[in-house]
Design goal:
The protein is mostly helical. It has one domain. The protein is 81% helix and 0% strand. The protein has twelve helices and no strands. The longest helix has 38 residues. The radius of gyration is 20 Å and the shape is globular.
Length: 254
């Protein structure tokens, strides 16, 4: 398993996908943030800070990591490197488990770096303009920890989807459409069903309220508790991963 972990880390270091991921995250987070701090009026920054942007950024980064997970797996089939992985380790479930673990760690570390860089930019930008900007957006350390965990979960879910469907462009496009539009439509039409959909479940791990947190009971009754949402998230990843391994045993990977 140690050799498998080293192989996965080598693949990440030797391809441009990981570097491209980090560049995209920098563009979607730091670029707009720097523009907001530089251009918006001081009274607005002092009053509301960049809370709205922080919420948007915290939703965008997991989507980028989702695509990264899909690409990380589908590239293996696209370039044929998965063949060598399965030849070295015939037990395909071990390859899948190691990919999930490595990509979960990469997703969490990436989210942690993104949070840290955003905080640094806000602090430095506020100091340059002479404004006290709220760098946390009202979030606590626990909120950030849950966002980091969700980043890891979403990344591994992308890996599982990529392993199951293989077709890179179709998988990326269909997954983003499902996550951004289809689930929201279902949640509006059938809230009881929407609560259990995968990306809404991931969101409930980080943003969901726990009963007793001071939230409206009418709202929390429609949501999963955070531990429940976490377990359901793990179940989604496990089901898709097992299906991918099962199908791979009956597919030609050469």
């Amino acid at each position: 398993m140690i050799a498998l972990a080293r192989a996965e880390l080598l693949k990440l270091r030797s391809t441009r996908t990981a570097l491209g991921l980090f560049i995209v995250i920098l563009v979607v987070t730091l670029g707009p943030l720097i523009a907001l701090i530089a251009l918006l009026p001081e009274d607005w920054l002092a009053a509301d800070g960049v809370t709205g942007f922080l919420g948007t950024a915290s939703a965008l980064v997991p989507l980028v990591l989702l695509v990264f997970g899909i690409l990380g797996m589908t590239n293996e089939y696209r370039h044929g490197t998965i063949t060598y992985s399965y030849l070295v380790t015939p037990r395909r479930w071990q390859v899948m488990v190691m990919k999930l673990v490595i990509y979960a760690l990469v997703g969490m570390v990436t989210m942690l770096l993104a949070v840290a860089l955003v905080y640094v930019v806000i602090v430095i930008g506020g100091a340059i303009r002479g404004i006290d900007i709220d760098a946390t957006g009202g979030s606590t350390a626990g909120d950030y920890a849950r966002q980091i965990v969700v980043a890891g979960l979403v990344t591994t879910f992308g890996v599982a989807l990529g392993a199951l469907f293989r077709a890179q462009v179709i998988t990326v496009a269909a997954t983003l459409i499902w996550a951004l539009f289809v689930e929201n439509i279902i949640a509006i039409i059938k809230p009881a069903v929407g609560t259990w959909l995968p990306f809404i479940v991931f969101n409930q791990v980080s943003a969901g309220q726990m009963p007793g947190d001071g939230a409206d009971p009418a709202l929390t009754s429609e949501m999963l508790a955070r531990p429940q949402a976490f377990l359901v998230s793990i179940a989604y990843i496990a089901i898709v991963s097992v299906a991918a391994v099962f199908i791979s045993l009956r597919r030609d990977v050469t």
